[in-house]
Design goal:
This protein is α/β, with parallel strands linked by helices. About 40% of the residues lie in helices and about 25% in strands.
Length: about 300
């Protein structure tokens, strides 16, 4: 019988490519990971790994077994859900990751509504960006994550994760009020000579801004970088910069800022769970609340 925990290590090695990373994920030493993988090879009765320089790579058999890991884990999640369904009342702690831009409009109403419907269920909100949420879900640090996905970037969903769409969040232009007429007449190209505010380079918000401007025929001159895009509206209010950001962040803009719609789809706010866990009562109840809340 194959050991599930060892299969998870093999899956993580297939995803991250380094034993040291797998060791950090599981809180053990690299030598312990190597030992567990050798034991898994013995259980499987075939070679799963080949040494390549100072690292390891998966054989065809190893890759095939790693690909089956998510199906096995989803079946175990469904089995756990069947047992939890026998509980008479929802209780216990539920770790919910949430993207910073959704803390105010999604996380806060979620906590309030869960307290009203299921008072013995204790949601614990953890701020986490989408790139952080998926590994935390797979490691069972999070039970559910409120995340987002930009349609313009076309990023595929990771294996082992099920997404439940909550609502669409369109992109908007935030510009000084005196530029409203020019933007309404000429669109995004009216801002080609302006200074721009962007999220950090590593973020999907930065990539979306670049895509939108380049699709309009220019590369934006980024002079300000701001991790808190809601705070970027204060920079726009100076009259000296413009930006693109999700509509969710634009409730109550400061005086002097015009918020204008941007053509095309923005992003989808969605709930992510481990595949198979969506039927566990506490997670199913949380999904039900999230979908009932709808768009802010």
């Amino acid at each position: 019988m194959l050991d599930v925990k060892r299969m998870v290590m093999l899956r993580d090695l297939a995803e991250y490519g380094k034993v040291s990373v797998v060791a950090d994920l599981h809180g053990v030493t690299p030598s312990a990971v190597s030992q567990q993988l050798r034991t898994l090879e013995a259980e499987a009765g075939t070679a799963l790994l080949l040494r390549q320089g100072r690292g390891l790579r998966l054989t065809s058999a190893g890759a095939a077994l790693a690909a089956q890991c998510e199906h096995v884990l989803a079946a175990l999640e469904r089995a756990e859900g069947a047992v939890r369904a026998l509980d008479t009342e929802l209780s216990g702690e539920l770790a919910v990751g949430c993207a910073p831009s959704a803390l105010h409009s999604v996380a806060a109403p979620l906590v309030a509504e869960l307290a009203a419907r299921h008072p013995r269920l204790r949601p614990r909100i953890v701020q986490s960006e989408p790139a952080e949420s998926v590994p935390l879900l797979k490691r069972h640090v999070l039970d559910l994550a409120v995340s987002y996905r930009y349609h313009l970037l076309g990023s595929p969903r990771p294996d082992g994760v099920t997404a439940v769409a909550l609502f669409d969040d369109p992109l908007v232009l935030a510009v000084p009020g005196e530029l409203r007429g020019a933007v309404e007449e000429d669109g995004l190209p009216a801002l080609r000579e302006r200074s721009w505010i962007s999220a950090p380079e590593s973020s999907s918000c930065h990539e979306v801004l670049l895509h939108a401007c380049r699709n309009a025929g220019f590369t934006p001159r980024i002079e300000h970088r701001c991790g808190d895009l809601r705070a970027a509206l204060s920079l726009v209010a100076t009259g000296l910069a413009v930006t693109i950001l999700p509509r969710l962040l634009c409730d109550g803009p400061p005086p002097g800022v015009a918020v204008l719609p941007l053509t095309g789809r923005g992003r989808t706010i969605e709930a992510l769970v481990r595949s198979g866990s969506e039927r566990q009562p506490a997670i199913a109840a949380t999904l039900a609340v999230l979908t009932s809340l709808g768009a802010p």
